[in-house]
Design goal:
alpha/beta, 16 strands, single chain, about 475 residues, Rossmann fold, 19 helices, five-stranded parallel sheet, about 15% strand, Helicase, Ruva Protein, domain 3, 3 domains
C-alpha cells in the first residue's frame, strides 16, 4: 500500500468518465493504493462534487458526454485552484496534451494506459498534494520562526533593518537586500515573505551565481518541447511555479547582462516567454533580490544594469557586517549554543567569560553564518555540562582579533547573576571599551567614528553621555 494510506486524511481522487469499465478498473487500482475514490460519469455532476467536497485530484477524460474536458478543467481551477487535474486523452496528440497543460492540468495520460502508469502518475500527483498539505500545516510555524522578534539583534544598526523590513513586508514593494556573505540576506527575505499577504503562496529562491547562463534562463522561464536537444517535453520555469508568491534572486549581480535585460522586460511587463516559445505567459510574483556587492559599485563595474537596479531597488535594505555590531555577538552566540546543545544532546553548556571575549574580539569575515558554524563545531566537541574556555575553541579565533582588541572587553560579568543582568553588564563593558577605542582611532572625531563603525552620530552621542566619555564633532 502506498504512503497515501498512512496519512490521517486520505487523499481523495475523483474519476470522471462515461466508460464504466475504465472507471471501475481505475477505481479499483487507486482504492487498493489507499486513495479515497469517487466517480462521476458527467462533467456537470463532477463540478457539483468539486464544489461540495474539494477533492485533491481529479482524473478526467478529455471527451465527456455533456461538456468538453478542457472546459471542465477550467471550471475546476476556478472552483478549487489547489485541486490537481490529470487529463485522460483518447487522442494522444501533442496539441490536445499541450492545450491541457496550458489550461492548468497537472499532467495527462494517453489511452490505453497500464495500471503501473496510472499508479506512477497519480502517485506523483499525491506527493504534490502532500507537499501542499505540509506547507499549510507548517505555515503558522514558519510565521513564528521568521517573526522579526525572533531575529536576534539589539544593536541600533540591525534594529533599523528590522524596522524597515517590518513596515515594508505587508506591501507589494520590491526589496533589494545588500550585505556581505553570511549576514543573513535570505533570512530577511524569508521573514519578508512570512509576514506578507503572500505568505500562503510559495517562497521561491534561486542563486544566480550557482548556474551557468543557459541553465539559469531555463530555470527562470521554463522551456518548450524541442527548444534544445534534451528538451523532450514542455517544462514550466520557477517564475511560473512561484505564482502568487515571493521570488528571491540571490547574488543577482552575477547574472549576465544579457539575461538581466530579459529579466528587466519580465519585471516591466509581468509576462514571460519560455525558452523556444512565442506565447507570453502572465506571472504574479513579488520581487526580492540580494547581492553581496555594493549595488552602486556593481553598476559602475558593469556587473549590474542600472535600469534593473532601479526596478528592483524600490526599498533598499543594507545588512551590517557582524564586526560592526559586536554588541549582538554574545546574544547570537548564546542562541546558537542553546540550539546546538539541544540538537546534539549536550545539556548545560556555557561560555566562560574568556571565551566570550574571544568571540566578541574576532573579526568574523564570514559574519553570522561563520559564528553559527563555529558554535556548532564547538558544541559537537564538548561534553554535557562543560564550561567552554578559549582552548576549547578553534585556533583561528585567537589569531584574527579585532584591531585594538583588549582583554576584558566583555569578560567582566558574573555567572551568579540572572542571565539578562549578566548580559547587560557584558554589553555595557563592551560598548564602553569599543567606543573608547573607536574614538582613539579617530582622535575623538564623532563624525568619522560614526562612519567607520556604521552607526549614527546620535547613537555615539547617546553612548558618550551614558558612559561619560568625551568626544568632539
Amino acid at each position: 500500500m502506498s504512503d497515501t494510506a498512512e496519512n490521517d486524511v486520505p487523499i481523495t481522487v475523483l474519476i470522471v468518465d462515461d466508460e464504466e469499465l475504465l472507471v471501475k478498473s481505475c477505481g479499483q487500482i487507486l482504492s487498493s493504493e489507499g486513495y479515497s475514490v469517487h466517480t462521476e460519469g458527467r462533467g456537470r455532476n463532477a463540478l457539483d462534487f468539486v464544489r461540495r467536497q474539494r477533492p485533491d485530484i481529479v482524473l478526467t477524460d478529455l471527451m465527456l458526454p455533456d461538456m468538453d474536458g478542457l472546459a471542465l478543467l477550467k471550471e475546476i481551477k476556478k472552483l478549487a485552484p489547489e485541486t490537481l487535474v490529470v487529463m485522460i486523452t483518447g487522442f494522444a496528440t501533442v496539441d490536445s496534451s499541450v492545450e491541457a497543460i496550458r489550461a492548468g492540468a497537472y499532467d495527462y495520460i494517453p489511452k490505453p494506459f497500464t495500471a503501473t502508469q496510472l499508479r506512477i502518475l497519480i502517485g506523483r500527483a499525491a506527493q504534490q498534494v502532500k507537499l501542499v498539505r505540509d506547507n499549510a500545516s507548517l505555515r503558522d510555524q514558519l510565521k513564528k520562526h521568521y517573526s522579526f522578534d525572533n531575529i536576534i539583534g539589539t544593536s541600533d544598526s540591525i534594529q533599523k533593518v528590522f524596522s524597515v523590513v517590518s513596515r515594508v513586508a505587508p506591501t507589494e514593494a520590491s526589496v533589494f537586500i545588500s550585505g556581505e556573505s553570511g549576514t543573513g540576506k535570505e533570512l530577511i527575505a524569508r521573514a519578508l515573505h512570512a509576514n506578507s499577504r503572500r505568505s500562503a503562496r510559495p517562497f521561491t529562491a534561486i542563486n544566480c551565481a550557482a548556474l551557468p547562463d543557459n541553465l539559469l534562463e531555463t530555470e527562470l522561464f521554463g522551456h518548450e518541447k524541442g527548444a534544445f536537444t534534451s528538451a523532450d517535453r514542455e517544462r514550466r520555469g520557477l517564475l511560473e511555479l512561484a505564482a502568487g508568491g515571493t521570488f528571491f534572486m540571490d547574488e543577482i549581480s552575477e547574472m549576465s547582462m544579457e539575461l538581466q535585460a530579459k529579466l528587466l522586460r519580465v519585471i516591466q511587463e509581468r509576462k514571460i516567454r519560455r525558452v523556444g516559445g512565442g506565447e507570453e505567459i502572465p506571472i504574479d510574483v513579488r520581487w526580492v533580490s540580494a547581492t553581496n556587492r555594493d549595488p552602486d559599485q556593481a553598476v559602475r563595474d558593469g556587473h549590474l544594469r542600472q535600469d534593473l537596479l532601479y526596478r528592483l531597488n524600490v526599498v533598499p535594505v543594507k545588512l551590517p557586517p557582524l564586526r560592526n555590531r559586536r554588541e549582538d555577538i554574545p546574544a547570537l552566540a548564546q542562541h546558537f549554543l542553546r540550539r546546538y546543545a539541544q540538537e546534539y544532546d549536550r545539556d548545560n553548556l556555557r561560555f566562560s567569560s574568556e571565551s566570550m571575549r574571544v568571540l566578541v574580539e574576532y573579526e568574523w569575515p564570514g559574519n553570522v553564518r561563520e559564528l553559527q558554524n563555529v558554535v556548532e563545531r564547538i558544541v559537537s566537541m564538548c561534553l554535557p555540562g562543560q564550561e567552554i574556555f578559549p582552548e576549547d575553541m578553534p585556533e583561528e579565533l585567537s589569531m584574527r582579533r579585532a584591531p585594538n582588541g583588549k582583554a576584558g572587553a566583555v569578560a567582566a560579568f558574573s555567572s551568579d547573576l540572572p542571565f539578562h543582568d549578566a548580559k547587560n553588564d557584558a554589553i555595557s563593558i563592551f560598548e564602553k571599551q569599543y567606543l573608547s577605542d573607536l574614538l582613539d582611532r579617530h582622535n575623538g572625531n564623532i563624525s568619522q567614528a560614526a562612519r567607520n563603525a556604521g552607526i549614527d552620530r546620535k547613537t555615539i552621542h547617546r553612548m558618550l553621555a551614558k558612559y561619560e566619555i568625551e568626544g568632539r564633532d
